[in-house]
Amino acid sequence: MKHTKIAFIILCSYFILSTASAAIQTEKTLGQQKIGAISAEGACTLDNLTEQFSKKADKEGASSFKIVAAGGKNKLYGVANIYK
Fold first, then answer.
1. Fewer CB in a 10 Å sphere around the end CB: N or C, the chain?
2. Across all residues in the chain, what is the average pLDDT?
3. Is 10 helix (H, G, I), strand (E, B) or coil?
């Protein structure tokens, strides 16, 4: 029982720490430095497109991103600026 509690605590800590470092979508970029732009395509919903941007921003070392263009009909595409 003791080992189960310890494993649970470690697992919860891992999820909290991994979520805390994810890039977030932002509207205000004051005080942040633009470090580039990313694009995404093939998303079925805006949430999927935002998820793609978040993952790509994380890979680039960004702390946040701002979507500047999005469009499409059946499959969505877009461009976002990334900030540190």
1. N
2. 82
3. helix
72: its two tokens? 């499409």
> Domains of the chain, with CATH numbers?
2-83 (3.30.1660.10)
Tokens of residue 42, six digits = 């093939």
Residue 16: both structure tokens together: 């909290």
**DSSP, residue by residue, 33-66:** PEEEEEEEEEESSHHHHHHHHHHHHHHTT-SEEE
SS3 content of the chain, % helix, strand, coil (to 5): 40, 35, 25
CA quadruple 9, 11, 13, 16: dihedral sign:
negative
pLDDT at 27: 77
Render pLDDT for 31-68 as a digit per residue (tens, 0 to 9): 899 999 999 999 999 999 999 999 999 999 999 999 99
Pair 64, 56: CB distance under 8 Å: no
